[in-house]
C-alpha cells in the first residue's frame, strides 16, 4: 500500500473540491509511474506519444492486445559522428567542458561511455507506458509553481510617527523598485501605511505574552519573503543596514570595522538622541558586559571596565562590578542583603556562604558576654545581650530558599577593614539595641562636643583604670534625684593644686573614720566624737561668738516623662508602625511611627503637664469579590487599600 502525504503551499487549490481533484490526479500520476517501462536499443522510427506493439515477449504475447500497445513518454537519443579519431576526441572534450551551460546532462545515465558492442553509432533510451494508462503529469506546486525570491522594502508610518504597529506587532512597508507611474493613486509608493497591508515580523522567540518585542521603526530597511511561496502571504524576514541606517554605535561612539569585538543591543530614544544598551565586549583578556541607560548615565558594568572607544578596547577603568548613576541607586532585598570582601574564587560557594562572618560573630558574642560577666562581678548590671542573641540566631539560620526563616537583615563582612566617611551628619538608630565590641580598642573622638544620654541607667566599667580630665573648664558631676557615691578600695584622694577644696551641704556634713565622728548640721551645731586622743594645735585660737554663712544651694527640679503605647482595642496587640503626632508644651510637633512594641517616642517636660497625642486612624479595609466568567463559578475575595 502506497501512502503519499503532501503539505501544499497556501492557495494551491481554491476549494476542497479542487484539492480533491489534485489528489486524484496525483493518484493517477502514481499509476503512470507504476506502469512505466524503460527501454534501450537502436531502433530509429520511434516517435514521442506514438503507440506501437511489442512482440516477441512471452509475458505479453499471451495477454490481451491492449496490454501489448505502448506509448513513449520520454525519449533520449545518442548518436556518434563519423569524424576521425583525433577530431572525435577533441569534440568530446569540447562537449564535456561546455556541460555546465546545460540544465541536463549531455547523455542519459543509462548510456555507457563506449560505443555499443554492435558497433552502431546510434542509441535510443525511452520510457513508455501502456496505451490505456492516462498520461497524468506528476504535478507538485512546491516544484512546478514559480519561486518567490526575497525582495526588499522600507518600513513606513504616518507622517510624524516613528513607531507604527498594531496588537500583533505588525508593520507596514513600501516595496522597493516599484514605478510610481504604475500607482497613480499613490498606494504602493506613497511612503505611508497605504503602501501595504500590515505584515508579520519574523521573531526569534514569540510566545503567548512572552518572547522578544522589537517593533520596527520608520525607515528601516527590511527583507520580505512569502510564506509557503504564496505572494499573498508576505512577511518581514529581517532587517538590513544601509547608508541611511549604519551599524549600531554603542554609547554613540563605537564604529566598524574598528570595534569588531563589541556586540550587543542599543535602542534609540523617540524624538531624541539618547538610548539604552546591552553591550558585550570580547576583546582578548578584556571581556566585559554593560547594561546602561543614557538617562542619568545609569550603568551596570561587569568584567573589565573601560571608557567607550571608537577604535580598540578603550582606556581601562579597572576590573570588577560597578553600579553607577547620576540619580538615585537602591539595593532592595526582602530576604536579606549581605556585603562581603571575603573571596570565593571562580564563583565557588553558595549564595549566602558566610563562614568568616559567622566566625567574627562568634568572637563578638564571646567578647560581649565575657566583658558583661566581668562588669557584673564588680557590681554592674552589664550589657543586655538578648538583641545580639536574636541577631546571631537569624544570621546562623539565614537561607535564601523560598519559605525559609525570616532573613530580612543586612550583614557586612570586610576582611581588610571598613570605613564610613561623610562631610555631613552620620546617623545610627536601632529600635532595640546598638551593640559595639572590639577585641582591642573602642575609640571615639569629637572635634567639638560628645553628648551621651540614657533614659534609664548608664554604666562605665574598666578592668584596670578609669580616667576623665578636662583641659579647660570645669568638670561637673550631678545627681538630680539621688546620691553620688565615691568608693575606693584604697585611698580616696581629693586634691586642689591651686585653690581650695569645698564641701557644701544643705542639711549637714559628716566625716567618719573608724569609731570617730565629726558632724555639723544646717543650724551650725557641730559634734565631735572621738574615742581616742584629740589634738588641736595652732599658733592662736579664736573662740569668739557665733557667725552664720549661708550655703545658697538651689535644689534640682524633677523632670517628667510622657510616652504612649498604642494597642488594638479588639485583642490588645501592639499597633506596630502606626503613624502618630505629638504636640509638646514648647510648641514642637513630633511626627513619627510606633516601634515594634507599639510605643511612641518619649517626651520629657520640666513640669507635670498634658502632652496630647493624635494617632492616625486607618481607613477600613474594603473587600470586593473576583467573579469568574460564566455562572455557578466560585468567588475569590481580594483586599485592597485605597490610594
UniProtKB/TrEMBL annotation:
<dbReference type="InterPro" id="IPR018769">
    <property type="entry name" value="VgrG2_DUF2345"/>
</dbReference>
<feature type="region of interest" description="Disordered">
    <location>
        <begin position="301"/>
        <end position="320"/>
    </location>
</feature>
<dbReference type="Pfam" id="PF10106">
    <property type="entry name" value="DUF2345"/>
</dbReference>
<feature type="region of interest" description="Disordered">
    <location>
        <begin position="624"/>
        <end position="643"/>
    </location>
</feature>
<feature type="domain" description="Putative type VI secretion system Rhs element associated Vgr">
    <location>
        <begin position="269"/>
        <end position="375"/>
    </location>
</feature>
<dbReference type="Pfam" id="PF13296">
    <property type="entry name" value="T6SS_Vgr"/>
</dbReference>
<dbReference type="InterPro" id="IPR037026">
    <property type="entry name" value="Vgr_OB-fold_dom_sf"/>
</dbReference>
<feature type="domain" description="DUF2345">
    <location>
        <begin position="409"/>
        <end position="546"/>
    </location>
</feature>
<protein>
    <submittedName>
        <fullName>Type VI secretion system Vgr family protein</fullName>
    </submittedName>
</protein>
<dbReference type="InterPro" id="IPR028244">
    <property type="entry name" value="T6SS_Rhs_Vgr_dom"/>
</dbReference>
Amino acid at each position: 500500500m502506497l501512502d503519499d502525504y503532501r503539505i501544499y503551499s497556501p492557495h494551491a487549490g481554491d476549494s476542497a473540491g479542487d484539492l480533491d481533484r489534485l489528489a486524484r490526479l496525483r493518484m493517477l500520476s502514481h499509476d503512470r509511474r507504476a506502469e512505466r517501462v524503460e527501454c534501450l536499443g537502436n531502433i530509429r522510427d520511434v516517435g514521442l506519444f506514438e503507440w506501437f506493439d511489442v512482440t516477441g515477449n512471452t509475458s505479453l504475447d499471451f495477454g490481451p492486445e491492449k496490454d501489448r500497445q505502448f506509448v513513449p513518454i520520454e525519449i533520449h537519443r545518442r548518436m556518434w559522428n563519423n569524424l576521425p579519431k583525433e577530431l572525435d576526441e577533441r569534440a568530446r572534450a569540447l562537449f564535456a567542458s561546455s556541460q555546465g551551460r546545460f540544465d541536463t546532462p549531455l547523455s542519459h545515465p543509462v548510456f555507457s561511455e563506449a560505443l555499443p558492442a554492435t558497433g552502431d553509432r546510434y542509441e535510443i533510451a525511452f520510457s513508455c507506458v501502456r496505451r490505456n494508462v492516462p498520461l497524468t503529469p506528476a504535478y507538485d506546486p512546491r516544484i512546478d509553481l514559480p519561486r518567490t525570491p526575497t525582495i526588499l522594502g522600507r518600513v513606513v508610518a504616518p507622517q510624524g510617527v516613528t513607531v507604527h504597529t498594531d496588537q500583533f506587532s505588525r508593520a507596514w512597508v513600501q516595496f522597493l523598485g516599484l514605478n510610481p507611474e504604475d500607482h497613480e493613486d499613490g498606494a504602493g509608493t506613497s511612503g505611508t501605511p497605504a503602501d501595504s497591508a500590515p505584515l508579520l515580523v519574523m521573531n526569534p522567540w514569540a510566545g503567548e505574552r512572552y518572547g522578544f518585542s522589537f517593533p520596527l521603526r520608520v525607515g528601516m530597511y527590511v527583507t520580505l519573503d512569502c510564506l509557503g511561496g504564496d505572494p499573498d502571504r508576505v512577511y518581514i524576514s529581517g532587517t538590513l543596514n544601509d547608508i541611511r541606517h549604519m551599524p549600531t554605535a554603542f554609547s554613540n561612539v563605537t564604529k566598524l570595522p574598528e570595534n569588531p569585538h563589541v556586540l550587543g543591543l542599543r535602542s534609540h530614544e523617540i524624538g531624541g538622541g539618547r538610548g539604552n544598551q546591552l553591550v558585550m565586549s570580547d576583546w582578548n583578556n578584556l571581556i566585559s558586559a554593560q547594561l546602561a541607560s543614557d538617562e542619568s548615565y545609569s550603568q551596570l558594568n561587569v568584567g573589565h571596565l573601560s571608557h567607550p572607544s571608537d577604535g580598540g578596547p578603550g582606556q581601562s577603568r579597572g576590573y570588577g562590578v560597578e553600579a553607577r548613576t547620576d540619580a538615585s541607586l537602591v539595593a532592595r532585598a526582602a530576604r536579606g542583603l549581605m556585603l562581603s570582601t571575603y573571596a570565593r574564587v571562580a564563583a565557588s560557594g553558595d549564595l549566602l556562604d558566610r563562614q568568616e562572618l559567622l566566625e567574627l560573630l562568634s568572637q563578638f558574642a564571646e567578647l560581649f558576654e565575657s566583658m558583661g560577666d566581668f562588669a557584673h562581678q564588680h557590681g554592674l548590671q552589664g550589657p543586655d545581650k538578648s538583641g545580639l542573641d536574636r541577631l546571631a540566631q537569624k544570621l546562623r539560620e539565614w537561607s535564601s530558599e523560598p519559605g525559609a526563616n525570616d532573613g530580612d537583615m543586612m550583614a557586612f563582612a570586610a576582611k581588610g577593614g571598613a570605613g564610613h566617611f561623610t562631610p555631613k551628619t552620620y546617623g545610627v538608630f536601632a529600635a532595640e539595641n546598638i551593640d559595639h565590641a572590639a577585641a582591642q580598642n573602642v575609640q571615639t573622638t569629637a572635634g567639638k562636643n560628645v553628648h551621651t544620654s540614657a533614659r534609664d541607667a548608664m554604666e562605665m566599667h574598666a578592668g584596670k583604670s578609669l580616667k576623665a580630665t578636662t583641659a579647660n573648664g570645669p568638670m561637673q558631676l550631678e545627681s538630680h534625684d539621688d546620691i553620688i557615691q565615691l568608693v575606693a578600695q584604697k585611698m580616696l584622694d581629693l586634691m586642689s593644686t591651686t585653690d581650695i577644696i569645698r564641701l557644701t551641704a544643705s542639711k549637714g556634713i559628716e566625716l567618719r573614720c573608724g569609731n570617730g565622728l565629726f558632724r555639723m548640721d544646717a543650724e551650725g551645731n557641730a559634734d565631735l566624737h572621738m574615742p581616742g586622743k584629740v589634738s588641736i594645735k595652732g599658733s592662736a585660737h579664736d573662740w569668739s561668738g557665733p557667725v552664720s554663712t549661708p550655703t545658697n544651694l538651689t535644689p534640682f527640679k524633677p523632670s517628667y516623662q510622657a510616652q504612649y503605647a498604642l494597642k488594638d482595642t479588639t485583642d490588645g496587640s501592639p499597633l506596630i508602625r502606626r503613624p502618630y503626632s505629638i504636640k509638646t508644651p514648647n510648641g514642637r510637633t513630633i511626627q513619627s511611627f510606633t516601634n515594634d512594641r507599639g510605643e511612641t517616642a518619649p517626651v520629657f517636660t520640666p513640669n507635670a503637664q498634658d502632652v496630647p497625642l493624635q494617632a492616625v486612624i486607618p481607613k477600613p479595609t474594603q473587600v470586593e469579590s473576583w467573579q469568574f466568567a460564566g455562572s455557578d463559578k466560585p468567588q475569590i475575595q481580594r483586599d485592597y487599600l485605597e490610594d
